[in-house]
Amino acid sequence: MSACIVGWAHTPFGKHSEEDVESLITQVSRGALQDAEVSASDVDEVVLGTFNEGFSPQGFPASLILQADEGLRFKPAVRVENACATGTAALHHGLRAIESGQARMVLVVGVEKMTALPGPEIGNTLLKAAYLKEEGDIKGGFAGVFAHICDLYYQRHGHQSDALARIAAKNHANGVHNPLAQIRKDLGYDFCRTLSDKNPTVVGNLKRTDCSLVSDGAAAIILTDEETARTMKRAVRFRAATHVSDYLPMSKRDIVRFEGCTHAWQQALQHAGVTLDDLSFVETHDCFTIAELIEYEAMGLTPPGQGFRALEEGWVYPGGKLPINLSGGLKAKGHPVGATGVSMHVLSAMQLTGAAAPEIQVSNPKMAGIYNMGGAAVANYVSILEPLV
User: Which parts of the sequence belong to the Thiolase N-terminal domain (predicted)?
Assistant: First the structure.
């Protein structure tokens, strides 16, 4: 039994000084129910995805969703967490409930309130997604983890600052057209490529434009079974949904290869019975620009060490053979950790139903690919989505 997305809601990502986790959850929960044109009493289960780990003082947040509507009271509620892939992990919990027949309709919410913490505390909180025994003292926190990966990539494949700048510029140009994005400014290649007072080094070879944003925000999705979905106004079907976990310590892996990402993509494409050529676009996890570059290679778009070709030959730009991160990605849209995976699925569902912003709407999209990553390619989730017809 395939599960389908039949409704969604999404706050703008950015700094929401007047909101807390509770109000963000309530806002998108009500919005998703309204969008799907279902009542809270129709929902069989609710799932909350939030990384937290110190971002919010409120522990035990799962039942906060029930406060969105009294019709949710006494429904089973659970909180799911898997680092930066938390949102998709929550969706997988909902998918299993539907595919097993335990639920007919599930409300999934992803949320994070990050900006209330001082900068150093944000870095320390995110670093908990690394292997602290070996990586806890890396300079620059979690950005330092990816700076280390960047250094190793450059040592093996040559300096790729041009490619990283192209990725940042591409995603910021796309983000201009996404009303939900945190930064809607076309920064341009030259700005992203050049070290400056406004684009300083963060750590190692990573500049500010190479790093995703600290964000607040939430997104929600209503899932249901295919039979029910066919009675609703619109639906997007999961053709495949895979999850692959790899070792947490970077020392136990060839960290430049993102092997877990490769396995997740291979499994998803095989389960869906398609190839990359069948996809109309991809939303991928660009927590840092070096991650997006390596993901081109891990997904099979280019051979190892040749991810730059996807940029030089225009494949990943709007109108290219496989546009990537038309939403602006984490780089421009923002990265409220627990909300990111749900957001990726919302933005992809909008594309597949013709509801994206006109400037970034793909013409007649057939199928979407999504890659959401937790840690440094530790938790790897790939979804293949298509309109239900």
Answer: 4-182
Position 121 scores a pLDDT of 87
199's tokens = 């684009």
The pLDDT of residue 1 is above 80 = no
CATH topology of domain 3-117+214-229: Peroxisomal Thiolase; Chain A, domain 1 (3.40.47)
Residue with tokens 């490529």: 193
Beta strands in 246-331 (DSSP E): 281-283
Three-state DSSP class for residue 342: helix
**Tokens (6 digits) for 359:** 């400037």
Question: Domain residues of the chain, as ranges?
Answer: 3-117+214-229
Cβ-based burial of 152 (10 A; exposed 0-12, middle 13-18, buried ≥19) = middle
Residue 212 has pLDDT above 90, yes or no: yes
Beta strand pairing status for 77-80 and 45-49? parallel
Q: Is 81 exposed, middle or buried (0-12, 13-18, 19+ CB in 10 A)?
A: middle
Please state the rounded mean pLDDT for residues 172-189. 98
| pLDDT tops 90 at residue 78 | yes
Cα(281)–Cα(308) distance, rounded to whole angstroms?
18
SS3 for 30?
Answer: helix
Give the pLDDT of residue 389.
84
CA distance 350 to 342: 12
Contact between 299 and 261 under an 8 Å Cβ cutoff? The reply is yes
pLDDT of 136-172, one tens digit each?
999 888 999 999 999 999 999 999 999 999 999 999 9
